[in-house]
């Protein structure tokens, strides 16, 4: 049986539809596979912000400790006031 012009067109349409379905499926798979990656990136940003706050707190406490030591060594009230200010400002 010879393929006619209309049956060749039908095969072409079927092949095109199969390729389109495959392309859509591949694109959806790629997009949905990126979702966990995006969530983990958001978690990394949140952790970075938390570490930044923690580093800031440690730095303030370090300065407060230095002021306290200077107060103990020298007895100057200025160092005590700096110590109290640093403790009050730390989160």
| Count of helical regions | 2
User: Helical proportion?
Assistant: over 70%
| Stretches with pLDDT under 50, minimum 5 residues | none
N→C terminal distance: 85 Å
Summarize the biggest pleated sheet.
none
Query: How much is the average pLDDT?
Result: 84
String of helices and strands: HH
Gyration radius from CA atoms, angstroms: 34 Å
Summarize the structure.
The chain contains two helices and no strands. The protein has about 90 residues and is mainly alpha-helical.
Characterise the protein shown here.
This protein is mainly alpha-helical and 91 residues long. The chain has one domain (5-89). It has helices at residues 5-74, 77-89. Helix 1 packs antiparallel against helix 2 (77-89). The longest helix is centred in the middle third of the chain and has 70 residues, at 5-74. The protein is rod-shaped.
Key descriptive features of the protein:
single chain, 91 residues, mainly alpha, rod-shaped
SSE topology:
Layout: H1 5-74, H2 77-89
Helix pairs in contact: 1-2
């Amino acid at each position: 049986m010879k393929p006619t012009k209309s049956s060749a067109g039908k095969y072409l349409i079927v092949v095109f539809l199969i390729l389109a379905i495959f392309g859509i499926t591949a694109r959806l798979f790629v997009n949905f596979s990126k979702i966990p990656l995006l969530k983990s990136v958001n978690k990394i940003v949140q952790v970075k912000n938390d570490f930044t706050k923690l580093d800031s707190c440690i730095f303030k406490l370090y300065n407060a400790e230095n002021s306290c030591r200077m107060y103990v060594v020298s007895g100057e009230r200025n160092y005590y006031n700096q110590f109290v200010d640093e403790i009050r400002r730390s989160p």
